[in-house]
Design brief:
By secondary structure, this protein is of the alpha+beta class. The protein has a single domain (15-100), classed as CoaB-like (Rossmann fold). It has helices at residues 23-36, 77-100, and strands spanning 15-20, 41-46, 53-57, 62-66. It has a four-stranded mixed β-sheet, with helices on both faces. The chain starts with 14 loop residues before the first strand and ends with a helix. Keywords: Ligase. This is Phosphopantothenate--cysteine ligase 2-like. GO terms for molecular function: ligase activity. InterPro entries: CoaB-like_sf.
């Protein structure tokens, strides 16, 4: 009896973090990084507000993520992770749909 064959499909959402001290050039650098490195998402952080707010940039949209003061979050990390997990799940679902058609 032959060994079982397992098929694995990996779907990666690739992202990059861009930290900048000058808010005027932050989004420009993030857009350049998105294209240059062919990322799915760039997380743009301004040095002074990086713990309170970041901007998640993709080719389709820009989303500002802020820490949730009501839930008592110490920083923006938890809502950022939630957004990236949500986007990755949507990315996987889209890849599965394309594969089955």
């Amino acid at each position: 009896m032959g060994s079982p064959f397992y098929r694995f499909n990996y779907v990666f959402l690739v992202f990059l973090s861009q930290l900048e001290t000058d808010s005027n050039i932050l989004l420009k650098k993030a857009d350049m990084a998105l294209r240059k490195y062919k990322m799915n998402v760039v997380v743009a952080n301004e040095l002074l507000t990086r713990k309170e707010e970041v901007t998640v940039i993709s080719t389709a949209e820009r989303i500002t993520v802020r820490k949730d003061k009501i839930l008592g979050d110490d920083d923006v990390e938890k809502p950022l992770i939630n957004l990236l997990v949500e986007q990755h799940s949507a990315y996987i679902k889209e890849a599965d749909t394309l594969e089955t058609t």
